[in-house]
Design brief:
The protein is mostly helical. It contains 8 helices and 3 strands; from the N terminus they run ααβββαααααα.
Length: 220
């Protein structure tokens, strides 16, 4: 049994007092082009999405129904509140109802470790000398890998890393500008992305989402 659908009636009743939030869901997540939603009501919610009925001036008293999916689906009832808050934050910021939150701190999480380790390994293999009997023991693994995969694989790997990380760092720069980070903090996110790739911009987006939800919970 769907744990979210089992409490659909309660959730729909609760959301009936947040019509402005439902309207923002319809316009942003439902991609409904309208300057005004005159009424909105959640009629059902389950782990895969929610059904909302709404009215616009041109529809008179007729209600229009829309299904807004959850990507990814909710794994349990405990995910309902954070997901709805996250969707509310995304919608209200995109629609200009609230300003984008400012990020003032640089943070690092364990997700940085694997990509950083791969870059370090690639650097180690690249700088190791060609395989021979004179290779120092601490460089032998790198020389062996270099000899095994071939020079073209190493060059291709570096080319891929440079292009992807450069594009990702440009994306990070747009996030830094949008969320008005101090110069030092913004530079650290951009440089971190340039060196390690996706963990840089993902870390920044996690902090942005946390700041959005915190702002909503404080009623700002």
């Amino acid at each position: 049994m769907d744990p979210v659908a089992a409490k659909s009636s309660f959730l729909c009743m609760y959301m009936s007092t947040h019509k402005d939030t439902l309207a923002s869901y319809v316009i942003y997540h439902g991609k409904v082009v309208s300057t005004k939603i005159t009424d909105a009501e959640m009629t059902r919610i389950d782990s895969k999405g929610m059904d909302i009925s709404y009215q616009i001036p041109s529809s008179g008293n007729e209600k229009i129904s829309i299904r807004i999916g959850f990507e990814p689906p909710l794994s349990g009832y405990e995910e309902v509140k954070p997901r709805l808050l996250s969707m509310k934050a995304d919608a209200e910021e995109a629609l200009g109802m609230v300003p984008a939150p400012q990020i003032t701190e640089f943070t690092v999480s364990p997700t940085w470790l694997a990509p950083a380790g791969l870059v370090i390994l690639l650097t180690y293999v690249t700088l190791s000398p060609p395989l021979s009997s004179n290779v120092p023991p601490y460089l032998y693994p790198g020389s062996f890998i270099q000899n095994f995969v071939g020079e073209w694989v190493i060059k291709f790997s570096w080319g891929t890393v440079v292009v992807l990380h450069a594009l990702e760092s440009l994306y990070t720069a747009t996030l830094v500008k949008r969320h008005r980070t101090p110069f030092r903090v913004g530079a650290m996110y951009v440089i971190g992305t340039l060196l390690c790739g996706y963990p840089g911009w993902m870390e920044l987006k996690r902090n942005v989402q946390a700041a959005r939800i915190d702002s909503i919970l404080k009623g700002k």
